[in-house]
Write a structure and sequence with these properties.
A 5-stranded antiparallel sheet has the order 6-5-4-1-7. It is rod-shaped, with a radius of gyration of 63 Å. Helix content is 57%, strand content 20%. The chain has 2 helices and 7 strands. The chain is α+β, with helices and mostly antiparallel strands and 203 residues long. The protein has a domain of 86 residues: SH3 Domains (SH3 type barrels), CATH 2.30.30.40.
Length: 203
């Protein structure tokens, strides 16, 4: 019976103090000592720097220590408060710097792209303004030509009107001359004495 109780207590203690092997890190401390047993009273067998990746082998809640294994294969105990499942800042910093550098490169790329698009848009706008100015100049030139043609047309109409009046005057004068000649002939012709006909020899 005593053996059974001892076995149950031992098993319970093992379950309470043991955890599956999992990756952990030494928290943001300069370093921590690695002890032979689960307290600071045990012999120091080494030290672990902050950010060292370790394997968590066992935790003892009663003593507040955890058994870990470092990359060099050494197994020992360190204070559980120095064990963390999250990457410490000393490891996250290079990744953060790299991510920041990548973000800056992307941002610079976007800025360059926006700058190129803005320059292209500005160039297109300048070309459009120049084209519009050219159209305005062409319109002004066409208006000037139209005004010149209208002036020439007005002069031509005046000239045609003057020529028409001259033609009408010419024909009027000719008609008047013909009428006067007709009247003159009508008045003078009766005054001209006619020759008498010779008597017929058989008369």
């Amino acid at each position: 019976m005593k053996n059974f109780v001892y076995l149950v207590v031992t098993l319970f203690t093992f379950l309470a103090t043991s955890v599956s092997s999992a990756d952990r890190y030494v928290s943001d401390q300069l370093f921590t000592y690695l002890h032979k047993g689960p307290s600071s009273q045990f012999r120091i067998i080494g030290s672990l720097n902050a950010g060292t990746k370790i394997k968590l082998l066992q935790s003892d809640k009663k003593t507040g220590y955890s058994k870990v294994k470092d990359p060099r294969g050494r197994s020992g105990w360190i204070s559980t408060k120095f064990v963390t499942s999250q990457e410490p800042s000393i490891l996250r910093l290079p990744k953060t710097v790299k991510a920041l550098d990548s973000a800056n490169k992307k941002l610079n790329g976007i800025a360059d792209s926006n700058r190129a698009a803005q320059q292209k848009q500005q160039q297109s706008l300048s070309e459009q303004i120049a084209s519009n100015q050219q159209l305005v100049t062409q319109r002004q030139q066409l208006l000037a030509k139209i005004q010149a043609l209208e002036l020439d047309n007005s002069k031509l109409q005046t000239r045609i009107a003057n020529q028409s009046e001259a033609v009408e005057m010419y024909w009027f004068m000719r008609g008047a001359a013909i009428i006067i000649m007709g009247i003159f002939i009508g008045l003078v012709l009766p005054l001209i004495p006619r020759r008498k006909k010779k008597n017929d020899v058989w008369a």
